[in-house]
Design goal:
binds S-adenosylmethionine; alpha/beta; 7-stranded mixed β-sheet; Rossmann fold
Amino acid sequence: MILNHPTKFAHFLLDQAIRPGDVVIDATVGYGDDTLFLAERVADFGQVYGFEIQKEAIDSCAERLIKANQASQVTLLNQGHERIITALPPELKAQAAIFSLGTLSPDSFEHITLPNTTISAYHQILSRLNRGGLIVFVIDPRFNETQEEIDYLIADLSRLEPTNYRVCHFKAVNVDQGQVLAIEKI
Ligand SMILES: C[S@@+](CC[C@H](N)C(=O)[O-])C[C@H]1O[C@@H](n2cnc3c(N)ncnc32)[C@H](O)[C@@H]1O
């Protein structure tokens, strides 16, 4: 089943775009579900750059990667994704990126992703994205993302030039189980 969970669906989409050896970005590492998926996908000759503002989450993700023997291809950065461009090596091109919007735990509204920083970060990634590359945004109601962030993001995405980018919005129509937004660079 891939349609019953926004993260699974986002991974399914990423799987179509990523090949071993690619460079990819996890813009919201958290405990590392997406980071681990990306690390396995790019393999030990690819590279994952992960951004996260919470030190404890970064540490826990790092441990998880070591246990899974997937740490060598991952660079974890304890900094906001709004400074992605300054953190990446110059000339580096990325094949894919994932944002998982909201907070790390359903009980907390601390360290929530914000519309301005999410939008700034994805534009920075677009400037380094390969043709055929993909950016996905996971909107899972368990992570408390705000409707304000979703609305600003969709408004911004809808202004992307259709000759350069295909932008899609995936959501279930018979149940509220989250959404996925995706940009493909043409
Ligand atoms: C929904 S959670 C991510 C869940 C994660 N994919 C996982 O597998 O655990 C969103 C994460 O984004 C982080 N975050 C919020 N603002 C951020 C920013 N400006 N830059 C990087 N990470 C940020 C939060 O600390 C939180 O861990």
